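Handover notes (outgoing to incoming on-call)

Open items:
1. NAD(+)--protein-arginine ADP-ribosyltransferase: sequence verified, structure written out, both below. Nothing else pending on this one.
2. Nothing else urgent.
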Amino acid sequence: MFEKIEKNYINKGLPHFDGIDNIKRFFTKATEERDPIWIIKAYTAETDFYKVLNTDIARGASQYQNERRYIIALLWHHPKLDYISFIGASYRVMQINPDDLQKYQQNCSLMTKSFLSSSIDQKLAELFLARKESSQEQKQISGRTKLDGTFIKLWVMCVYNIKYRRTALHIENSSQYANEGEILIMPYTVFKVKSVKHIQPSSLGNQSMTQIEFEECDQYFYIQT
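NAD(+)--protein-arginine ADP-ribosyltransferase structure tokens:
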């Protein structure tokens, strides 16, 4: 698996982006040491590799599909990563338009289409939100509304309750962002919406936001990769 990933997807399939040579070095180390921790280091490096990989996985690109499946399989099943397997709650903040938010109804199910980064600490997720709000205010795009006064984009706090081994990895100590308590959720994980409610985090002042709580479904529902 390691050789095919490096030879085909990494050396032939990736577009050029800043830092691509570092990504190639990480995968060379992964092949030499037979250790998928180097794939995590590549994923969390300050490059566009994680964006390229997730985009390719999400759209199901046929070229190098097997190699991407190997990446998923190594991160999901390789025994060398058992020590960072995570079970518990993780938190992620996202922006979504109101129409899409209406699709998240209690008891509906959804499947992750790519790797999903979240945090072990809700306060860190709220800090991310505060930074995004500050950045958007500087760009004068915060709180944009339609003519009828409704917001174009809404902030949503997602809470993922992970129930099974290796569905998620606690990659904080292997990540370039070691202080963010990163939890990496695997692609093709199925969750059910447990609850939808409004909360008021301190980072938004008097503004409330929606919190969606997800619970991992039984694994026999999963689509095999």
